[in-house]
Amino acid sequence: MSSCSSRALTILSTVFGACGLLLVGVAVSTDYWLIMVEGIILQQNQSMEVKMALHSGLWRVCFVAGSENGRCVASEYFTEPDIEITTENTANILKMVRTATPFPMVSLLFVFTAFVISNIGHIQPQRTILAFVSGIFFILSGLSLVVGLVLYISSINDEVMNRPREPEQFFHYHYGWSFAFAASSFLLKEGAGVMSVYLFMKRYAEEEMYRPHPALYRPRLSESSDYSGQFLHPESSWPPPNRGRSASEASSDISIQLNQTPPEICMHLEMYNAKC
Description:
Blueprint: H1 2-29, E1 34-41, E2 48-56, E3 60-65, E4 72-74, H2 88-96, H3 102-123, H4 129-161, E5 169-175, H5 177-210, H6 247-259, H7 263-271
Antiparallel strand pairs: 1-2, 1-5, 2-3, 3-4
């Protein structure tokens, strides 16, 4: 059961990470984050005349109506682009959204790093730490992206709130599919990060479960034998130290000495033809 759950976590974290990387890559490279329409209301028939319509991303602004219709201009971060904007508030919106650009780029870098480390960890599952590192990078990537999204929304809302209310003018805006891709990528990356960290915990627990206890590698020597560990411990001295003689061995030697006749007595007995 645990191997099946680990395999499922491996597949899901890979799929979530790949989808998160793909979505944030598409979101950063496209220019449908914000769509704005601006015009006037004709008093005669209460119809609306569009003066300007555009869609913008992190790097480019494209006009679809008005005097700049069909023109796409790169977002200049250090100089003002040569375009004609109907109102100052619209120009301020395009300026303020530039503050959120670095965070999606950092998020893209983090999620790419996490995806590479995660795949290396799946190929070599014995390196359990790689799953944990990839999970941390997935989570950091999601946090960086959500910070960028919050800054993007707040900068637009501030300019819209400061926009003067005039009855003869109208202004509409909404977020495009590029923004939706970025928001979806945040959820996928956070999910991949949580699953990678949980996969690390399971792999670590399995390693600890099947790892033998260190006491099993230590031989247990018998206390009754002085020579049982001489081959297991080469550093021990050889030959072994002399053992003390027991009382039975000492009494045996004394009886042998008493039973033996001294050689001088045997010589005197031979002189009298007696046997020793």
